[in-house]
Design goal:
The chain has 221 residues and is mostly helical. Helices cover 55% and strands 11% of the residues. It is flat and about 90 Å long.
C-alpha cells in the first residue's frame, strides 16, 4: 500500500502552483476571447459607419440629379460629366476628407511614379469594396504601369482584403496595433498612421539589408 508520505510526494508541482497556473491560463483565454470579440465589434461598427455615410451620399446625389438644372441652359443636365462636376463643386469636405476625381484631384501621379521605388497608399478599410474603383485601386493601377510595388495601410482589414493583390497592391497592414474604439482610432489616426508606416519601412529596410548581405562578395566566402 502507498503510504501517506508517498502520496504527498506523488507530484513534483505543488497544489498552489497548479491553482495559479489554472488561473493564469483561464485569464489568458478570457482576455483572448475579449480581444477577438472587441475587434469584431469595432470592425462591424466601422463598416456600418462607412455604409451609412455612403448611403447618405447616394441619397443626396439622387436628389440633386432629379432636381438640378444646367446653369448654362436652365434645363436638366444632359451630360453625366457636367452633372458630376456641378455636384462635386457643391460639396464641402469635412476634416480628414478629400474629393478626388479620376485625375486624383489634379495630382500628376504618373510623373511622381517615374523613378519611384515604392508607393504607400492608405484607406479607412481595405476589403472587397477597395477593388471597385477606390483611390488605392487607382493608385495601384497606375503604379503597376510603371512597375512600382504598392503597400496599402488601413484602419481595418475586412472581407476580401486578400483580393487586392489582383489590382496591384502587393502588401497590406492595419495601422491599429491593439483593439480600440472608432473614436479613438479617428482621434489618434495621425500617430497610428505614422507609426504603422515606420514599422513597415523598418521591415523593408531589414529585408533589403539581408538581401544586400547575401549578394555581397563577402557573403560568398
Amino acid at each position: 500500500m502507498q503510504t501517506d508520505t508517498e502520496a504527498q510526494q506523488g507530484s513534483s508541482v505543488s497544489a498552489r502552483l497548479r491553482i495559479v497556473g489554472w488561473i493564469v491560463l483561464t485569464t489568458a483565454v478570457a482576455l483572448l476571447a475579449a480581444t477577438v470579440t472587441m475587434r469584431s465589434i469595432m470592425t462591424a461598427l466601422i463598416a456600418e459607419a462607412a455604409n451609412v455615410g455612403i448611403a447618405q451620399e447616394i441619397d443626396e446625389f439622387r436628389t440633386f440629379a432629379a432636381e438640378a438644372l444646367d446653369p448654362t441652359t436652365a434645363q436638366p443636365f444632359t451630360s453625366m460629366h457636367s452633372l458630376m462636376e456641378r455636384y462635386l463643386a457643391r460639396q464641402q469636405p469635412m476634416a480628414g476628407e478629400a474629393i478626388l476625381d479620376s485625375g486624383l484631384a489634379g495630382i500628376d501621379l504618373d510623373s511622381m511614379l517615374r523613378g519611384a521605388d515604392l508607393v504607400i497608399t492608405a484607406e479607412g478599410a481595405i476589403d472587397f469594396q477597395t477593388l471597385k474603383g477606390k483611390v488605392p485601386a487607382e493608385v495601384a493601377c497606375r503604379a503597376s504601369l510603371h512597375g512600382v510595388p504598392v503597400v496599402a495601410l488601413a484602419g481595418t482589414l475586412g472581407r476580401g482584403c486578400r483580393d487586392v493583390r489582383d489590382i496591384g497592391i502587393d502588401a497590406i497592414a492595419s495601422i491599429m496595433p491593439i483593439p480600440m474604439t472608432l473614436q479613438e482610432a479617428v482621434d489618434d489616426g495621425e500617430r497610428l498612421l505614422i507609426e504603422a508606416a515606420e514599422r513597415f519601412m523598418r521591415t523593408i529596410i531589414l529585408g533589403a539589408s539581408m538581401a544586400a548581405a547575401r549578394l555581397s562578395p563577402r557573403a560568398a566566402w
